[in-house]
Amino acid sequence: MIKTAVMGYGTIGSGVTEILAENRDVIAAQAGQEIELKYVLDLREFPDSPIADKVIHEFKLIEEDPEIQIVVETMGGLNPAYPFVKACLMAGKHVVTSNKALVAAHGTELLAIARKKKVNFFFEASVGGGIPIIRPLYHCLMGERIEEITGILNGTTNYILTKMDKEGDTFENALREAQNLGYAERNPEADVEGYDTCRKIAILTAMAAGKEVDYQDIYTEGITKITDVDFKYAEKMGISIKLFGTSRIRDGKVSAYVAPVMINSSHPLYGVRDVFNGIMVRGNMLGVSMFYGSGAGKLPTASAVIADIIEAAQNLKKNVPMGWGDEKQTIEPMENMRFRYFVRLAGSFRNKEQDIRRIFGHTEVIELYGMDEFAVLTPEMEEGAFRQAVAAYDALAEAHSDFGIKQTIRAMM
Amino acid sequence: MIKTAVMGYGTIGSGVTEILAENRDVIAAQAGQEIELKYVLDLREFPDSPIADKVIHEFKLIEEDPEIQIVVETMGGLNPAYPFVKACLMAGKHVVTSNKALVAAHGTELLAIARKKKVNFFFEASVGGGIPIIRPLYHCLMGERIEEITGILNGTTNYILTKMDKEGDTFENALREAQNLGYAERNPEADVEGYDTCRKIAILTAMAAGKEVDYQDIYTEGITKITDVDFKYAEKMGISIKLFGTSRIRDGKVSAYVAPVMINSSHPLYGVRDVFNGIMVRGNMLGVSMFYGSGAGKLPTASAVIADIIEAAQNLKKNVPMGWGDEKQTIEPMENMRFRYFVRLAGSFRNKEQDIRRIFGHTEVIELYGMDEFAVLTPEMEEGAFRQAVAAYDALAEAHSDFGIKQTIRAMM
After folding, report:
1. Nearest-by-CA chain B residue for A146
2. Domain spanning A142-294: which superfamily?
3. ipTM reported for the complex, 2 dp
């Protein structure tokens, strides 16, 4: 029998204790022995819950109890999650976490301690909720050179964009609806500004590159500027807008970004709707594969934690190599990435054709009936070149009253 | 350094040798040591290939060479694949195979020998080509009670159905096109009759149930009876027709079938087009997740073989538990499964409404302009009850000239 402690009895922590009870037999069969919950660490008491008699308030009890071999961290945030997890690993205990902030900020150090102490630091639940993605990267696609990972990694923003797409909602209305349904926080900044997606793609990039990735090096743009008018064009073009976290590896160079992107129906992530997540992986031999499922939610996320607990139980005396080393990965500047760009411009196309051609190249033009504006779709170009083009067009706008850029969105099609 | 032998230098076997060379460094890093190809067993010579000097024609050389620790079987078929694989396992060598016929027919026995000999018998490439699905079942979803696995598991039939759907092609034309493109064999029976899908869903069912599954117990219906007229109705209904291999586990009872099924756009497999495969897994805690990618093809399939080689290399002295035991699994009779049914009927709906209501229950009616027929969609019912209803309607047809059943297709929506 293996004894475990859960730190943080919130949504995911309580899901973990629930599955440990509910799927006890399956888990024991896979782990090779029973997994028993000994402690639940939380500041609160839970007198009416099934774990009432296991609640403790002192971290030291876990750290100093030699019976505890696997610790589950589902507190979230960095403090006290970081010192607690570090102390557990130093004490020779396996740690399993669902905490993307922790992994993105301190993954490299914690993995190094785990290697040194011959234990494991697992974090499947930190990205993609219940979707297996971390483990496939180190257990299933091991013979591949990963060339790209692109994910719809945040259910809240995907719900908002799906609602704007399907129902013509404004961003503000769709956000309010997401908040009413409990999909978005009262303060939605971490989701809608792309910060959550940024941490997740940083983790996936570190797994793919095998090196430390500083999430602050990743260009991050959220969805707050996407409007219902953009989706009117999208509908006419038969495409959709999704918030992507992407990393690309070519010739040892790594680029990564978070941004809303226009994609058409041939993209594997086109059909990922509502709160679902999807993660596309491109390998040099495999080509494209895609993993889809519940990117959040109590039981799906807790299920990923349970898989980590089982793998830790199967490897009590052994550090499972995950391929994420100590070296620091440089991220290429965003200016070097290539996209097409969707650009909404004020006025009518007629008197601007020559200027647009000169500045943006051979664009496609999209016009909506009855609007005092139009849009163009540029050829593929480097972000740096596009920014220069935007500046050149802005300069024209100063001289001509009906010039002006209303929106720019990256496009991959 | 670990030495390996590849048996069968066909499409997949040559893909394996290619990736072993091309991704040598990645593979060595993951496996913990270099993997060196020592022999390629084939009846033919390949004088101009990079493996020319490794070709052998005598199986005994592999079986009796103590240096060979991992053997790759990519011959296909049962003879001599089965005796060769068995002999390798008996000789204490790990075996990796892409051969679904072998795994479906002899998986239980070969896994038992591997356990006894403390080696591994891996077969990721036997289902879903390059899509990781076997390994997720024993490495990622270990804490789940698997309740359903449904897959589009055959690229050839999915290509044919996609072509019929998108272009209004007849089955015969779509098949010919698939043959011209090399997606279908000259003798396409194994694909279009569902036999290939049957073996694959048998393997997945055995993994999910943890028991031996006889693929001959699985009700199997191919796509040869699906017509362009069916897709006219499908278009009007906004749905699609896919060849599903499905298994369901509830209260320890296992049901499984292979059949074309109508699904709507809310089904996770709706967007799986052309030669791609997709596999949906439903767990009791996780809910639905889906794995998507190239279900066939030289390099994607070989990539799955390479992942197996690496896992064998990481576990040279240890049998990795895969949860597929010796016990035999009973498969519930098809009569007990529940579906809705799409039924195309001759004549016009008007004079038949009462009979249809009485026999099929409260159906939806779908009429196409200018056709001397119509269709109904029944409520959900057991297959056995539906068969009785069909017999009752057939009895009416004997008395009335414009009655008659033209088509029946299961529907899940």
Report:
1. B26
2. Dihydrodipicolinate Reductase; domain 2 (3.30.360.10)
3. 0.92
